[in-house]
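Hi again,

Forgot to attach this to my earlier email, sorry! This is the prediction with iron/sulfur cluster bound. I've pasted everything inline since the attachment limit keeps bouncing my files.
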Amino acid sequence: MTVETSASASPAAASSGGVSDGQLARATAARSTVVPPAGDPSAFPALQAEVRRLAAEHDAVILAHSYERPEIQDVADYVGDSLMLSRVAAAARQSTIVFCGVAFMAETAKILSPAKRVLLPDLAAGCSLADSITVDQLRAWKAQHPGAVVVSYVNTSAAVKAESDYCCTSGNARGVIEAIPADREILFLPDMFLGMWLQRVTGRKMHIWLGECHVHAGIRPADVAEWHRAEPDAELLIHPECGCTSQVIDAASAAGEQVQILSTEGMVSYAEKSAAPAFLVATEIGILHRLGLKAPGKRFVPVNREAVCQYMKLTTLEKLRDSLALGQFEIEVAEDIADRARLALERMIAIS
Ligand code: 13P
Ligand code: SF4
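Structure tokens for the complex follow:
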């Protein structure tokens, strides 16, 4: 059976912030074999050292989502899921936040820390899920359901957040839905698979927008079934955005088996604690690097090796260096939109 990650070192991107050269070297050696490097890996240590020097010079904190390239994760101060990075952005003490992720994440950081300069190394880093609903579509939907509570996944534009009562991430979506009084009608957007899973675990009926992430929607029940046959003892870790979630839960419960439906950070914590030696991972494959670093000695098998978010992979070390050196590309959110969106985001941050 293929061993999909080769990690054996301790994490470089510590949650406490600050990265030493030794940590960088160890983490680079432990790089996942799944995501091909952008450029010549022998140039990475020098580029990473330059990035760290520029971050110190410009009083910048570097945040990276777990779907970013391994060499980006290794050089960041903080690596995590949307919820963890939002919390870090809200509390950052540096004057600049460089977000190695996608545009809605940088916008979220700007809304939560309006006095700070927020940089996104590549403006083309979008999100198919965030694009699946516009603010005009949301306004029209709200008009059909006056008085309904609007819960938006954090993968939305700032303008959509400004029309929402609550934001949530996959890490706290269940807690957010459970915090809403039982007699209130709920509009949940934009991810239909996350919405369907939430209905299932909370028992709440919701109106669900029919949006999807093209990466997670592409992870099919057959992918999971095929790997499960090959690795019957591996535990199943599934992100709730996946198109396979409901069918895999049904098949597993019919067979008396357990499936863990988790955010990316939830997968990392679960794998660290679990006694299982192997895991089938149904999400974007960038997470394999972090899983390998945080749970060395365990095997992580992507159920679909094609589950790659091209937006997350746009960030390279060269673009990160240029972002720090040239102050590009600065993210701005109009004040009236930011003020309204902040309320929904602060509710999200308060609920775990
Ligand atoms: P989380 O980081 O919240 O698990 O979300 C995954 C995702 O698709 C982010 O774009
Ligand atoms: Fe958006 Fe999907 Fe990429 Fe996440 S993985 S940033 S939801 S397109």
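The chain has 16 helices and twelve strands. The pocket of iron/sulfur cluster (ligand 2) is lined by residues 67, 102, 127-129, 155, 213, 215-216, 284, 309, 311-312 (CB under 6 Å).

That should be everything now.

G.
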